[in-house]
Amino acid sequence: MNKINITVTRYNPEKSSEPYPQSYSIPFREDMVVLDALNYIKNQVDGTLTHRWSCRMGVCGSCGMMVNGSPKLTCSTFLRDYYPGDVHVGPLDNFKVIRDLVTDMSDFMEKLQEIKPWIIRKEEKPLEEGEYLQSPAELNQYRQFSMCINCMICYAACPVYGHDSSFLGPAAIALAHRYNMDSRDEGQDQRAEIIGSHEGIWECTFVGECTRVCPTHVDPAAAIQRSKVQLTKEYFLSLVWPWGKP
Ligand code: FES
To answer: Is residue 76 domain-shared with residue 137, that is, in the same domain?
Structure first.
């Protein structure tokens, strides 16, 4: 049977002071993804290997890792794209490592909470008045931004976040934009305080890596630039109508 060499970055803060590489030679099949290789190692070779995954179908966003230097969903990345070369798997860049390939998500979870990723109404209408209806055209205003699976791959690719982790980051801003564009939502002013802050959209230097690496084809770079235009427009309107729009 053909074999492939998988090198994994190992790190157990309780046992080692620095991460180190560990290589495994495992059977190769054309239909194997990187996550299959890690599961094979975990189940057949070395049970101490620690990695995170859940759905195995590109939906849950939990299996993001660096594969040969690029952030990828390991359940959607085929070994055959690297074979017969070696494959190096490491934890997502720009995040603290808890153990081996598992990173600490708490910074992202806090940022997600800050941008209020839910529909905000100034006043809820009574239940008996029915749903908040939306046309297909209104849905299309935000649809692509709702495809984010919170995998944090865009954060691993973002040089601004890598330089300064106080930056709100691509996924959080894309999700804020998703709700701001929703015709049922009235929370734009509340989110503007966060996305328009020093750590928000103005930090982005429009490198565009977030959009390039997104496994679900969300375009966070576009969300950030559109938010800049929107907030700039609102700023100038506030100069014309300092007491609020007529
Ligand atoms: S395991 Fe769920 S996205 Fe990969």
So the answer is: no
